[in-house]
Amino acid sequence: MKGHQDYIRDIVEIRSMMERTSKFLSLSGWAGIMGGLYAIVGAYIAYEVFDFNPDVIEYSYPKSESFSSNLLKVFFLALIVLILTISTAIFLSYKKAIKRGEKLWNTTAKGLLINMTVPLIAGVLLILILISKGLIGFIAPLTLLFYGLALFNASNFTYEEVKSIGLIEIGLGLISIYFVEYGLLCWAVGFGVVHIIYGIYLHYRYER
């Protein structure tokens, strides 16, 4: 007959198996660290090179040629940062999934993606509308806000700590809406520093 310790071990194994099938656990801590570094470098370039640091919500000169040129450069810079971040996350998550003997793309990953995509698409569309109205100061705050909502949604499909990160991003987004002049700084903290700290935490808790 099985002893008490055997039953406990069986329960632990069953719980672990259920968690693997219901949670996306292939997120890599290094992906968070690298994404945070990309964001900090991107924010620095936007501020120092393209002189992008809106201190008011509405710009009275959205049609200015020099301003429009810099804004377009910031847009492409953000796109590059996004592509680098996503590519790194996919590559490192794939390596982690292989190491764990799991598939990267499964039902859980699909649920995670859907729950993140809906608020992110809504946020992008809203930001584009506001940019067309000259409300440039909302760019950084709303990216934080909608990204935080996306993480909060996605937390049901991955590590529980992601919910806390989502709430932090939402909080930074709301703060930067009130203090518009610190919008880019809050963005750098949210997408840069917070990601790096979370990545280090994730790596040391789940990957070592």
Describe this structure in words.
The structure is a single chain. The protein has 208 residues and is mainly α. It has one domain (27-91, 101-207). It is 77% helix and 0% strand. It has helices spanning 4-22, 29-48, 65-100, 107-132, 139-154, 161-178, 183-207. Helix 2 (29-48) packs antiparallel against helix 7 (183-207), helix 4 runs antiparallel to helix 5 (139-154) and helix 5 runs antiparallel to helix 6 (161-178). The longest helix has 36 residues, at 65-100. It is elongated. The model is unreliable at 10-22 (pLDDT under 50).
Furnish the topology, listing elements before pairings.
Blueprint: H1 4-22, H2 29-48, H3 65-100, H4 107-132, H5 139-154, H6 161-178, H7 183-207
Helix pairs in contact: 2-3, 2-7, 4-5, 5-6, 5-7, 6-7
Transmembrane segments: 24-47, 67-92, 112-129, 135-152, 187-204
Keywords: Membrane, Transmembrane, Transmembrane helix
Helix content: over 70%
| Form type | elongated
Main sheet? none
Low-confidence parts: 10-22
Q: What is the count of structural domains? A: 1
Quickly count the helices: 7
Q: Strand-and-helix sequence, N→C?
A: HHHHHHH
Number of DSSP strand runs: 0
Task: Report the span from N to C terminus.
Answer: 36 Å
Q: Average pLDDT value?
A: 82
Structural class, by secondary structure, is mainly alpha
The Rg value, from CA coordinates, equals 20 Å
User: What portion of residues belong to β-strands?
Assistant: under 5%
